[in-house]
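Please, does this match?
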Amino acid sequence: MLHAVDDASGRVFLRFVPNENTEEVLKTLKKYVEENGIPHSIYTDKFKVYYAEDKQTDFQKAMDKLSIRRIYANSPQAKGRVERGNRTLQDCLVKEMRLRGISDIDSANKFLREEFIDYYNNKFSIKDDLPDVHTSSEGIELENVFCRETKIQVRNDYTVTLNGKYIQLEKSEVTLPLPKQYVTLRKYLDGSLHIFHNEDELKFKILNGKPRRKRVKVSWRPAENHPWRNINFGKNRRK
């Protein structure tokens, strides 16, 4: 279960997932932002989904796009508030689901959304009026924020490669990038692929195999009075 706690009020946001991987974390954060707005900062451990020394993770890219400050815990004890909350949830939440016969993720998440989260927050969170430091996400295309993103160089034939597949960029009203320039490939959380250059979306098609190099056949015959015809090569005159 992915468990987020608001530091000021103690309100929780919960979601069951098969694994704590990048896709499920991004889905959870997208849902959180849609319902609550953009938080000022977010505090996580250094699990590989959230932190990497040699490259920027998709989680980090999303946080930077929304200007969310990232804070990393250097020890399990530093996440004590979440861990203490988990002990409570492992008791009362498990019992509530058992009483309802809930044993699959979809049913569990429906129960969280429709009943348990509001019940838990009303019982345990601070109810005093507190300033909300979340900012609105209105006008932001969140699908371009919470996604898998990579940059790839354009080849001379206006193709790019992704996971061994060739993708042909096609002409449209958007100006194509020049060969050797980079485009941004984004895989949305619904599984669809989108390609951008300077934040303009490009048209493309996925090829079945490696594109064949086009051979240009030049057919040209000089005029009868062309100087080239007056040059002798060896014993023969070129006609």
